[in-house]
Design goal:
- The longest helix has 6 residues.
- It contains 2 helices and 14 strands, in the order ββαββββββββαββββ.
- It has 160 residues and is mainly beta.
C-alpha cells in the first residue's frame, strides 16, 4: 500500500552479528579500528555473548584464540568481526567457537559465544568492531548507528 515507504536496497545488507548498541567504528578506542585502518565498519556494544553470521558466506578464518573471525560474503565482501579489544591475549579463555575455517554459513547461524561479564571483570573493553577489510571495493558503505539492535538487524549496506 505505501510502497514509497519501503527502503530500496542498493547493495548487500549486513545484519548485526551481536545484540547490543551499534555505534560508529570511529568510537572504538583502538586506532587500528577507530581510524579505519582495517576498513570501514561499525561496532557493537554487546548485551550478550552470542555472535551470529551477519550474511550468507564462508568463514575464511576462525582465529585460534576465538576472539575474532573473518568471512567472505556471497557477494564478495571481506568481513572481520573482532570481539572486544586486546582479547587475543586471553588465548581463547571465555570464548567458544561453533564453526571452523571454511565453514559455509547462512545469515543468523551461531558462530561463536563469549562471556561478556567475564571479559569485563578481567578489565577488557567488550566493544566489538565489524569492518569491511576490502572497503575500497565498494562505491558506498551505508552504516546505521546509534541504535539498539538484535542479531540480523541491518547495520550496513555495501554498494558496488
Amino acid at each position: 500500500m505505501f510502497d514509497f515507504l519501503k527502503k530500496k536496497q542498493k547493495g548487500e545488507v549486513l545484519g548485526s552479528p551481536i545484540e547490543g548498541e551499534v555505534v560508529s567504528v570511529t568510537e572504538v578506542n583502538d586506532p587500528t579500528f577507530g581510524e579505519e585502518i582495517l576498513g570501514k565498519g561499525v561496532a557493537i556494544k554487546p548485551t550478550n555473548g552470542k555472535v551470529y553470521a551477519p550474511v550468507d558466506g564462508k568463514v575464511t578464518m576462525m582465529f585460534e584464540t576465538k576472539h575474532a573471525f573473518s568471512m567472505l560474503s556471497a557477494q564478495g565482501a571481506e568481513i572481520l568481526v573482532h570481539i572486544g579489544l586486546d582479547t587475543v591475549t586471553l588465548k581463547g579463555k571465555h570464548f567458544t567457537a561453533h564453526v571452523g575455517n571454511d565453514a559455509e554459513v547462512k545469515k543468523g547461524d551461531l558462530l561463536l559465544e563469549f562471556d561478556v561479564e567475564a571479559l569485563k571483570a578481567e578489565g577488557f573493553d567488550v566493544i566489538s568492531p565489524m569492518v569491511i577489510t576490502n572497503s575500497d571495493d565498494f562505491k558506498e558503505i551505508i552504516r546505521e548507528t546509534n541504535k539498539d539492535v538484535k542479531p540480523g538487524d541491518q547495520v550496513m549496506e555495501l554498494v558496488k
